[in-house]
Amino acid sequence: MLIYHLTSRSRWEDALQQGSYTAESLAVEGFIHCSTDAQLLPVANAFYRDLADPVVLRIEADRLEAPLRWEAPESGDTFDAERFPHVYGPINLDAVIAATGPARSPDGSYTGFGR
Question: Which residues contact 69 (CB under 8 A, 6 or more apart)?
Fold first, then answer.
């Protein structure tokens, strides 16, 4: 099963040098936020429109070394009724099968992720 994580190209390039990917949310919240294919576009447009030079990581969940848990967001969130994949540790690079830039409209909204 594939899960997805939107990040900046510079953070991804840092991960390639360091040997694993981490996000600020891992230190702050204890996990890395991810999405399913169906969740990716609405989440990107709700939370990541201001992200400079974005890249989407396609992650093979079965290859993750860190625990993966499916959890609902905090109460009152826009996506309250859904469960999201959360990775509880660094993402090992061999679990990332692709890293590609998204398609965006002139207003900055995401329109696709070049599957």
Answer: 31, 85, 86, 88
